[in-house]
Amino acid sequence: MFISSQRSAPSFRDFTLVMPAVAVGNVGQLAVDLIVSTLNMSRVGHIHTDCLIPMAGNNPYASCKEDGEELHTPAEVYAAAELKLAVLQIRAPILQSKTKKFRQLLVSWIKSSGFSRTVVLSSSHAYQRDDQQLQGTPLRYLVTPSLLKGSADALKELGWREMERVPAFPGLTDGNTEPRLCIPGGGITKGLYTDSCKEDLPLAVLLLFCSEGDNIPDAFALANHLNDWLHLLDDNVSDTTAQH
Amino acid sequence: MATFFGEVLSVYSRAVEEDDDELDENEEDEQIRRELEEKREVHLHWSPEVSESLKSGNKLQCSDFILAVGQNASSFLSVHILSTPNWDTIGRASVWNERSRAVMGQSCEESACVFYRHKDNPTVLICQVSCYVAEDQLFQWTEKVFDCLQHRELNVTVLSDTSVADYKTADYLGGSSAPFLRSLHTSAFGDQPVCQSLEQPNIVTGLAAAVLNHCQVHRIAAVVYQCYSDVIGPDSVTMETYKPVLTKLGRSIQLDPSPSTDALRKFVRTTDLQSNLYI
Questions:
Q1: pLDDT single digits (tens) B201-217
Q2: Which of B16, B21, B214 sits opposite A93 (nearest CB)?
Q3: Is the dihedral of CA A108, A111, A113, A118 positive or negative?
Q4: S-S: B15 plus which of A174, A185, B95, B107, CB 3.0-4.6 Å?
Q5: Per residue in A45-88, pLDDT tens?
Q6: Going by C-beta distance under 8 Å and a sequence separation of 6 or more, which residues neighbour residue B205?
């Protein structure tokens, strides 16, 4: 559950929540790190749960020696009140036996906090794309019906590509099988999306097809893609490390 | 993942494939799953006096809680602190998982996780954990133990063994640098750690991390001293690496700063018969 690290609990009413899915290449998590460090967001609390594998480390966003020794936990919430933005960072894998419980925890926290919309940054195995998906942009999106109501125009203007439904058994010409949503390597992305549809939550998924490796450029691509929509920064972030 | 030289490496991905929830679990599966979950539960067994006190709603008064995770950390406490006759055994925790097996000569259950309390200063508690606590049991162990302790002005010190193979650094670690100590502490910890802080990108995992997480969110002063060693198993040099911590622990408890070689020898086995892979 959410435990505030300040004296009083912060208010997230009408904030946008950005969160990662622990997925292939850890792209969502890297993109969230980019957002937190670029916008210099401050930590406002922790999600303390038995669903994540425990880990602890010193401040990964330390800019000087003074704030280097701040302890960080597997799931933390950062906020930038002026942007009405909250970010959840997840640093550890979800225990396999607890994925459903973790999704329920997230859905109920999102509901009780009153976020106006949630954006899940995720990724999917590039090697499992079908012929159609091999062409064009590797970025995809999904929105729940609740979010589509308010954002249909914005999404249309951006010209984004919706995540395709794929046949359950490719190659079989059995007409009975409906194409369905499949996000291989996406962790809890699909489950969280379907749960949000059921609960009528305004939620969007932004994902990228990628493979394990140096996923820093993928993180930049995903973060800039998000920025095109939410306009968190005036200019998109550039990947200076790509010059090496 | 493909490399520049055309070879294909199978890379371990941390992305977990989500279980297909559409598959209905039949009753038998659900029962098996429930029984397995029950078997993996952490149970605390306190002495009658402590049980009575907890049952009547009084938590254990505790000013210092010292936790040793791993064989060398546990042996260090046994040799330097628990060797004096001022300690009562007040409880143990039973933890069953896939790695539980009877250690030669003693039942794993009995000695794997024991709680001691100082006779003269009963607010000082020590716990030695030498068994493996699985990932899904770490949070439970921590919550159950800390639920029994009062939190006000509590100071937690954790000594934790780990392998130097897990230590990541850009500089080459010479052969003579291990074993060495690194520390991590919560925001509420106001004292000075006895060693360098754990550098990026290293992290702490396991029971030490679970305790740190709990203490951080509940604003309890806690410090973890992680000992990176290149020796698997009990080793006197690794044990001695924890010595600087004695200066902090010695403030609240009487300790033996220079134990005899016999005392050390008792805790250090030379070669384990089962592990004759490297003689």
A1: 999 999 999 999 999 99
A2: B16
A3: positive
A4: A185
A5: 999 999 999 999 999 998 877 778 899 999 999 999 999 999 99
A6: A53, A54, A55
Q: Does domain A9-38+94-230 have CATH number 3.40.50.10900?
A: yes
Nearest to A83 by CA among A122, A114, A51, A42: A42
**B91 DSSP β-pair partners:** B46, B115
Place of tokens 């991590």: B184
* Cβ of residue A123 closer than 8 Å to a chain B Cβ: yes
Crossing angle of the two packed helices A189-198 and A99-113, in degrees rounded to 10: 50
Measured CA angle at A109 (ends A108, A112), to 5 deg: 85
Show the tokens assigned to A132: 């159609």
Minimum distance, in Å, between the CA of residue B136 and any CA atom of chain A: 7
Distance from CA of B160 to the nearest CA of A (A): 13
Query: pTM value?
Result: 0.89
Kindly provide the residue ranges of all beta strands, DSSP E only, lying in chain A, ordered along the sequence.
2-4, 16-20, 42-47, 55-56, 75-80, 85-90, 117-125, 139-143, 203-210
Q: Is the peptide bond before B201 cis (omega within 30 degrees of 0)?
A: yes
Catalogue all structural domains in chain B, each as residue range(s) with its CATH number: 57-266 (3.40.50.10900)
